[in-house]
Amino acid sequence: QRCCICRLRGASVTCRGRRCSRIFHFPCGSERGCISQFFGEFKSFCWKHRPVQRVRAVQEDQTNCLICQEAVARWPCYNTLVCPTCKSAWFHRRCIQSQALRSALHHFRCPLCQDMATFQEEMFRLGIKIPDR
């Protein structure tokens, strides 16, 4: 199969969006904004069909990522995620992914409100890999 992003052969990740025929390499998809869910059926989605945050949170003033302290986008998007519980904790995708890899499943939680269940469920859905250990 040809990758729909780089056009090279060997692509094996298929978008699970309705009637979507996009196939891509995992690294190409990651660079383009595709999401792979690391639980259940291990579904992958292209940039058009990826899950989005349903949290209604918009900043009034510029907010910084709780992890790196650099500015984040003004609303939730692919690169900017929000805690679904407190709606006050904003993160860059790369920062919260790094935090998840360091914390692992039993310690990964919102750094602000300390919610674990809802926070982990949302991060899993949005393609954040949370290892068991």
TrEMBL record:
InterPro entries: EPHD (IPR034732), PHD-type_Zinc_Finger (IPR051188), Zinc_finger_PHD-type_CS (IPR019786), Znf_FYVE_PHD (IPR011011), Znf_PHD (IPR001965), Znf_RING (IPR001841), Znf_RING/FYVE/PHD (IPR013083)
Pfam families documented for this protein: zf-HC5HC2H
Record has Ubl conjugation as a keyword: no
UniProt-recorded name of the protein: G2E3 ligase
Keyword Zinc-finger: yes
Organism: Aramus guarauna (Limpkin)
Record-annotated RING-type domain positions: 65-114
Positions of the PHD-type domain: 1-50
SUPFAM superfamilies registered for this protein in UniProt: FYVE/PHD zinc finger
Keywords: Ligase, Metal-binding, Zinc, Zinc-finger
One GO CC term on file: nucleus
Lineage: Eukaryota, Metazoa, Chordata, Craniata, Vertebrata
GO function term, MF aspect, one: zinc ion binding
